[in-house]
Amino acid sequence: MMASPPLAGHAAAVNSLLLAAPEAAATRDAKGATACHLAAVYGLEAVVAALLNFSLELAMVTDNSGKLPIHVASLEGHIKVLEVLIREAPQCITAATPKGLNAAMLATLNGHVDALRLLIAAAPELAAAVDEYNSTCTEVAAQEGNTDCLKLLLEVAPASATAPSDEGVTPIHMAAMQGHDVALELLLTAAPEGTAVLTDKGATPSHIAAEHGTTACLRRLIAAAPATASAKDCNGFTPTHWAAGLGHLEALEVLLDAAPGTATSQAVDGTTPLHHAAFSGHIAVVERLVSLVPESMNVMAKGRTTPLHRAAQNGQTDAVVALLSLAPDTLNAQTDLGTTALHIAAVEGHEDTVAALLRAGAAQIPGFPEFDGPWPAHLAACQGHAETLKLLLEADPEAGERRDSEASALHYSTVLQQFVCLRCIF
């Protein structure tokens, strides 16, 4: 709450000033606030009453952010000011800011439950009103973890527990996202079916908790609905995919305890949680998944891509090293196109990853077998990755001269004017 100014609240003085200079009532400061806004911010109900007695229009004047006096009073939780505004200017009760935030939402935002109760009593429809994102007061309470406000809102509008905002996010999804476990408990008590409600992308609240690593919420959701531990969203991702891809090891353990089969569950694109962990470079997750299901190292996504290919693609050198230590036989595994992890790292210019693969003994072989190439050196040369090409040439001096069905790395460097690569070859 804002501190009161040293000299404020003199309603009689305000009346005298308005009589002497009526235009002062509409004067604004740099933020567009009138005297009525300032009185509302500081909780000066007598001054607000004096100003409204002079002109009720002041209740409907917005500042530069589009807020009315009732909005700023709600943010600060000033009950007596709200009582004056509700009594003298009821037309402002349901008014919203340009972003669709009404007074009840703003009171909820800062956890002012008494202010919220007063506003809903004056205008019950506020409990179900939505902002520009179609969020209700209940979603605001869930997002902020304001449980006293949430209890009140669930009493007056129990259906709001599963009311979807934009993208299908409900208050239950929001509580799970923010890790507000007590708020989540209240919402699930009001709407147990909310554990299975999907967003527009097919995500359950368990997916959201896994994505954000809110482990306590995830435990609660799985205890309430065990099947959600293995549910798939529109991309075929389970909560385990999300936890693995974002490195949430504790959440991953919860999910693997509840649904161990999700360790090798494949999404629409064929990727497993291990593919996701490898791509993002989450070593502890990689090691945990492989220790639980060693064969997951050999599960291939579309195009026959392995977790090693994914790690190489994103330049996750530590993950590459970890994967090779766990399954060295995957070093030269080829995709449908005949490309190895070395090809993929070379075309992306991931020098450290290329170096690690070469140290492990990666073979420089042609990709796209039907075309007898390109070789890793060709790919590096085409993209102008001079340092990567240098590493490949140091490991195999003849790499620059080998030809695919079209040309050698030298030809590619010349035609594509990759002069920095030409210097490496010569």
UniProtKB/TrEMBL annotation:
Membrane: present as a keyword of the record? no
Task: Output the superkingdom of the source species.
Answer: Eukaryota
The UniProt entry, under Gene3D superfamilies, shows: Ankyrin repeat-containing domain
* Stored InterPro entries: Ankyrin_rpt (IPR002110), Ankyrin_rpt-contain_sf (IPR036770)
Describe where the ANK repeats fall, as residue ranges on this chain: 65-87, 167-188, 235-257, 269-291, 337-362, 372-404
What are the UniProt keywords, alphabetically? ANK repeat, Repeat
Quote the protein name from its UniProt record: Uncharacterized protein
Q: Which organism is it from?
A: Chlorella ohadii
